[in-house]
Amino acid sequence: MAAPKLVAFDADDTLWPNQPHFDYAEARLYALLTHYGDADLLGSRFYEVQRRNMQLFGYGAKSFMLSMIETVIQLTNGAVTGTEIQQILDYGKRLLDFPIELLPHVPEVLAEVKRRGLPLLLLTKGDLFDQESKLARSGLGDLFDHVEIVSEKNEATYQRIMRRYQVQPKEFVMIGNSLKSDVLPVARLGGRAVYVPYHTTWVMERVSEAELAGVSFQEVASLAEVPAWLDTLR
Predict the structure, then answer these.
(1) Listing from the earlier edge strand, what are the strands of the sheet with 146-150?
(2) What does the alpha-carbon distance between residue 106 and residue 169 come to, in Å, rounded to a whole number?
(3) Rounded Cα gap, residues 188 and 181, in angstroms
(4) C-alpha to C-alpha distances, 110 to 142, 155, 222, nearest whole angstrom
(5) Which of 46, 110, 126, 228 lies at a CB distance of 3.0 to 4.6 Å from 143, suitable for a disulfide?
(6) Is this structure's pTM higher than 0.90?
(7) DSSP assignment of the chain, as one string?
(8) Average model confidence (pLDDT) for the chain?
(9) Are 184 and 211 spatial neighbours (Cβ–Cβ below 8 Å)?
(10) pLDDT tens, position by position, 62-95
């Protein structure tokens, strides 16, 4: 069993809460726009618009705002008011500067992994400016040896990252809360993936049981278990 040479951590909903802020903004906007349709209708339309726009807008608050505006324009045949569009923009802007509150054990775990002499990589996807801002607000920047902000986390992305840092899949560890983005691509490449469940998952990040069949990965109840688990690999 090869010892790990690079340990990567996801950011959103692994190191700090993110999805709850989007869930709150979405619910508040549905309440404000309820005269155009109930939450189920708004939600289903919003999901479809987001799914179509993902290849154009990517992930994050800006994509959220644009897709919500497009959804309401379609539902109202263009009758949505400027005031309502401004409300959407206001909620979206709050998603760009909310205070970063670290999840339990985060600083201690990062420090413990560094004390083991393992290089740390922050590997997150989304809007470059937004993700850089969140990292700066988190105060964790000095704990990471490397930072990679990517547009998508798939097998091609992970292969590129491994080549850049000159590690083999069996020497690479990815830790995160998303089975779709943090676990499946890495496990399929032969890397080590650690799944840290979070209490809410964005609908676009959910996977079926069939997709997990035959995939080998480590699940932990909390980040606090990660240092001891890493010790078993060395």
Answers:
(1) 146-150, 120-125, 6-9, 172-176, 192-195, 218-219
(2) 25
(3) 12
(4) 10, 25, 13
(5) 110
(6) yes
(7) -PPPSEEEE--BTTTB--HHHHHHHHHHHHHHTGGG--HHHHHHHHHHHHHHHHHHH-SSHHHHHHHHHHHHHHHTTT---HHHHHHHHHHHHHTTTPPP-PPTTHHHHHHHHHHTT--EEEEEES-HHHHHHHHHHHT-GGG-SEEEEES--SHHHHHHHHHHTT--GGGEEEEES-IIIIIHHHHHTT-EEEE---S---GGG---HHHHTT---EE-SSGGGHHHHHHTT-
(8) 95
(9) yes
(10) 999 999 999 999 999 999 999 999 999 999 999 9
Question: For residue 173, what are its two tokens?
Answer: 């560890």
Length of the chain: 234
Q: Are 170 and 190 in contact (CB under 8 A)?
A: yes
**Which pLDDT does position 1 carry in this prediction?**
67
User: Hey, what are 67's tokens?
Assistant: 């897709």
Structure tokens at 188: 């399929």
Mean pLDDT of all residues in 89-114: 96
